[in-house]
Amino acid sequence: MANTWNQGAIDAGGGDYFGCSIGEIVVLQIAGMFEFVDKTFDESKGPQSMCEIPAHNLGDPTEDGTPRTFSTGRRRSQPLLALCAELDGKGLDPRTRAIRVEVNGRPHPTKAGQTIGDMVATDLGPATEHGGVSLYAAAAVAADPATACMDAMGKAADLDALKAAFGPGYKAADATVRPALKAAYDERKAAFEDSADVPF
């Protein structure tokens, strides 16, 4: 397979990862179950235990709508995992929620001049209200991509929603129906751009 610039950038960065450093705030939507992995970033320090979670960075989504890997230290991840357990206990699927993650710094208790990051995780509500993806729409696309794509494009309220509806459905659909999906997308996109009456 030929190289691509995008894949090269991902590989050079160690994979399609994102995290949250001290002083940062990230809003994410979890897309799968966490996994603890040991990674060596510095040979002199040995392996570090990391928590990796498939997730969407709602402030910086991927072009094709696929999740990345949210990566943070195992101990630092505890508040995020505790929030997911709390949501699950209330009957809310953590994968349907927008979660605000921030890491606040505090002085290290024994190492002068060093800072420890403490994570704070907050449930912001349904992910779809914060630019996230519908878990149920994703399931519908998997079952019948073409029909789900047409339905989602028909319900799209704006150009961003139209793009979000078209991409995953088009990629998952059979090649024989893709031209029809693209034609429907182009027609609806033109209507949005002209601010005319939107078809469907």
Topology:
Layout: H1 5-12, E1 17-18, E2 25-30, E3 35-39, E4 48-57, E5 68-73, H2 78-89, E6 97-107, E7 115-126, H3 135-143, H4 145-155, H5 159-172, H6 178-194
Parallel strand pairs: 1-5
Antiparallel strand pairs: 2-4, 2-6, 3-4, 4-5, 6-7
Helix pairs in contact: 3-4, 4-5, 4-6, 5-6
Question: What this model shows, in words?
Answer:
This protein has 200 residues and is an alpha+beta fold. It folds into 2 domains: 15-130, OB fold (Dihydrolipoamide Acetyltransferase, E2P) (Beta Barrel); 135-190. It has 6 helices and 7 strands, in the order αβββββαββαααα. The protein has helices at residues 5-12, 78-89, 135-143, 145-155, 159-172, 178-194; strands at 17-18, 25-30, 35-39, 48-57, 68-73, 97-107, 115-126. Strands 1, 2, 3, 4, 5, 6 and 7 form a 7-stranded mixed sheet that branches. Strand 6 (97-107) and strand 7 (115-126) form a beta hairpin. The mean pLDDT is 82.
Order of helices and strands: HEEEEEHEEHHHH
* Assembly level: single chain
Helical coverage, percent range: 25-40%
The CATH level-2 architecture of the largest domain is identified as Beta Barrel
CATH class of the largest domain: Mainly Beta
Number of H/I helices: 6
Shape descriptor: elongated
Radius of gyration: 20 Å
Q: Per CATH, what is the topology of the largest domain?
A: OB fold (Dihydrolipoamide Acetyltransferase, E2P)
Sheet with most strands: 7 strands, mixed
